[in-house]
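Sat 14:20. Reprocessing the chain from the morning session after the first attempt stalled halfway. Input below, unchanged.
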Amino acid sequence: MFTFSLTLVRHGETEYNRLKLLQGQGVDTLLSETGAQQGEAVGRYLRDIPFNNVIVSNLQRAMQTAEKILRNNSHCSGTEMVLEPLLRERGFGVAEGRPKEDLKNMANAAGQSCRDYTPPGGETLDQVRLRFKKFLKVLYKQMLDEHGWSRPDASAVSSEAEDSANDTAAAASALGASADDGLQGVPVHVLAVSHGAYIRVAVKHLVEDLECSLPEGVRMSQLFSPCPNTGISRFIFTLNRSDSGPVLSAARCVFTNRKDHLETLTAAE
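Finished this time. Tokens:
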């Protein structure tokens, strides 16, 4: 068996976010001043996590956020971020660059909910889910190619990681959350920086399709709520060997949409 953690972070705020305009893939904007501050804040929050791999959407807002996380990290001075188009935001077609209210109006005119509606030229939710499934497949292979099956205690890590995730989830509710929740006993750590709509689809796939284990007492509304700018989600994966390649044995959600690091920014305002 081989176990690793995946920490998903949404990019920081852009002016389009602030103005409630859709970006998707066609509008490739930079971080706003607030977004840059959020990037620094999430970088400080995650500074002690020794990320082995950093994988990032190739849109500028995600790359800028990842750069700030890496610059603040105590262990990643030699770590290079890998740009991955599979992590790009959902494509919103003709709605890109337009107010989110326009998307709602288009959905209403089509007799659909805004969440399920696909504007002309945009990606369906199933297409985004397929992109995330492809990303996971590539990631599983990369983990084994780079880190192998023979890391110390890798065979014993699965149950330890699951017990640890349960313990830290309970402790977080009683004592306050920690940036390293769920990582005890896990030998390899991956950071992925992506986008709000994409992360929402990814979480739904992990929870509903892969039936990952959930923290005790978590509400489904919290799991599937929109991810805030620089919101953090974390999952633990255990892989088994097969003749056709790595196979997922277990997945566990540690937390989703965490934004503790943003409290310092709010307090400073």
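Confidence is low (pLDDT under 50) at residues 152-175.
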